[in-house]
Amino acid sequence: MMEKQINKFLINENVVTFGNLGIAPKILDVILRLGFKTPTSIQYKAIPEAIEGKDIIGIAQTGTGKTLAFGIPLIQQILKTGKERGLIILPTRELALQINESIQKIGQGFGIKTAVLIGGAPIGHQIKTIRGNPHVIIGTPGRILDHLEQKTLRLYDITILVLDEADRMFDMGFAPQINKILKAVPKNRQTMLFSATMPDGIVKIAVNHMKLPVRVEIAKSGTTAENIEHELFIVKKDQKFLLLRKLLLDYKGSILIFARTKFSVRKICSDLRNIEISAAEIHSNRTLSQRKAALEGFKLGRYKVLVATDIASRGIDVKGIELVINFDLPENPEDYVHRIGRTGRAGMGGKAISFALPDQRGKVKDIERLTKLYLSILKLPDFPSNLNQPSDNFNKRNYSPHRNRPSHHFGHGKRK
Ligand code: ADP
Ligand code: MG
């Protein structure tokens, strides 16, 4: 099973290696030394095009290696001429730190310098790293714009621009900031956009900032990662926590819980601690160092549960998250794809369980339409105050923790 999963994630290793993609031998050495043997589909298709300097719209499922798909070409071009400069814009602080780490892992030995410009971190230190003339700037829109406005940052020498989680970067929340930043970046540049979701409306806007982009699409926008089993409970608001508590007893591994607001994240977290489940929280009311400590502690297994707002829904790569729970359904169907994409990464299995209120059927339909999946509805388990649960006409399977292994149900419910 494991074999099969990995082979689906990676390209057939008898035929394809990183060696045929135009990657310089010295970079190839590092990639292999880091333990990457075979490229993923998006890497296989995007790297040769990106090395040639083409503009790219890259669409591939969550957890399939999009970072190196742009990271390797970026580093290679910088090393080749010494003149290229990269700017990577992404939606959150956590993602900026993670992408910096990935770039550093390959680039550090070659003297590639990076600057991470994110909110919540001391601006003085950032100014110092900018003065060090970094090859790659990695940051969130708000802080990059702050630096531009304070004239502590100039982007006139940027030649390669990457927007990771690009659809998020062009959506209503970020668009005004992105537009201002793009005005400071030279028009003559390479532009690369990557995401697992790319609504047509966003592509239309984005291509205005690009030169005849190549569209590298491994799976249709909105396709979820393979090997994730999806389940749904229809549950009343006041029973959500009882249900959560029941589920947490059945799962031994790491669990990521998404809630809609920072207030509900905080509440869930403290309720969990009250029943002695170790939980950490990530939302915008926490400081950068609190957020770092929460994610780090979760990665190290110090906390069994991480509770977060959509801040943690995009890009975050934590190995071995067994289960993602949508305590509240996400605002947009795209967010569903990203949230549950925190599990089932790099060919691993995973499970996603969502709680929908009885009047949220429409939202569930939207998710099913985008992902082309049916979310199987489970019957609520018995808990003490479960007297008048909502009745409906759906066929429900009984909830049973024995179904936790994703393997036999993989592919179940795929709409053809
Ligand atoms: P995405 O951006 O598509 O969600 P990431 O770039 O975060 O995915 O990569 C997901 C995980 O897969 C990371 O832990 C990364 O180290 C790993 N990975 C990336 N490329 C490969 C590869 N070619 N072989 C094995 N693992 C890989
Ligand atoms: Mg990514």
**Unreliably modeled segments:** 1-7, 386-394, 402-416
CATH class of the largest domain: Alpha Beta
What would you call the quaternary organization?
Answer: single chain
* Average residue pLDDT: 91
The portion of residues forming beta strands comes to 15-25%
Write the CATH architecture name of the largest domain: 3-Layer(aba) Sandwich
Biggest pleated sheet: 8 strands, parallel
Estimate the helix proportion, in percent: 25-40%
* First and last CA, distance: 23 Å
CATH topology of the largest domain: Rossmann fold
Q: Tell me the strand order in the biggest sheet.
A: 10-11-9-12-13-8-14-15
Task: Give the C-alpha Rg.
Answer: 22 Å
**Ligands, ions, cofactors:** adenosine-5'-diphosphate, magnesium ion
Which series of helices and strands comes N to C? HHHEHEHEHEHEHHEHEEHEHEHEEHEHEE
Domain module count: 2
> CATH homologous superfamily of the largest domain?
P-loop containing nucleotide triphosphate hydrolases
Number of strands: 15
